[in-house]
Structures are given as structure tokens and as C-alpha cells.
Amino acid sequence: MKIYGIKSCDSVRKAVKFFKNHNIDFEMVDFKTTPVGCDTIDRWLQHVPIDKLFNTRGTTYRTLKLKELNLDDAGKRAWLCKENMLIKRPVIETDDGKVIVGYDEIRYKELLLA
After folding, report:
1. Where in the chain are the domains?
2. How distant, in Å, are the alpha carbons of 8, 17, 48 from that of 12?
């Protein structure tokens, strides 16, 4: 199981804490030290809609003024591939291929502790 995100993100910290509290083994993948490429983005997009993965509320989105570009899905995908800080965090990738975006304790319990 992998947790993708950045170590300084509150939502990622909550996810890590949840995993540790429930003795779930995981690997942390930090976008700042290990960027993910289009292959990983595409794999995630097979399981979640792009609007769930693409973070429009973060500083990076505002700094790059992406709202003004009125991006379609292909444009959003291209930006996710080149700027990982636009990925909503955390992204949990389970060993059986499930993808969970964002911190959601109830959903974690349903999918990871069942």
C-alpha cells in the first residue's frame, strides 16, 4: 500500500497517523523527492475522475493562474503530469488496485479495515 503526497500536508499526516494507528503497512511517496509521472496519473484516472484528483483549491493552482485557462480534462491531465503539487492529497493506492483521493476516515475504515 502506498500513500502519495507531501510530508508537510495536514491531510497526508492524518492519513499516515490512521495507517499507523491501525497497523497498516505502507510506503510513503513524497512528491517533492519522488515525482510521479503520467503513467501513474493515468493509472489513477482509471479509478477516479480527474476533477477528484485535480486540486483547484491549492496555492499552486492559484499561483499558476490555471483558472483563467479554463482547462479541459486533457489540459488538467497534462498539468498533473508536469506539476505534482496540483494533485489532491493524499492519494492512497492499495495493493489490490483501489485508489482513494483525499483524507476520509470513514472511507478508509470501509475499504482498508474490512
Report:
1. 2-112
2. 8, 9, 18
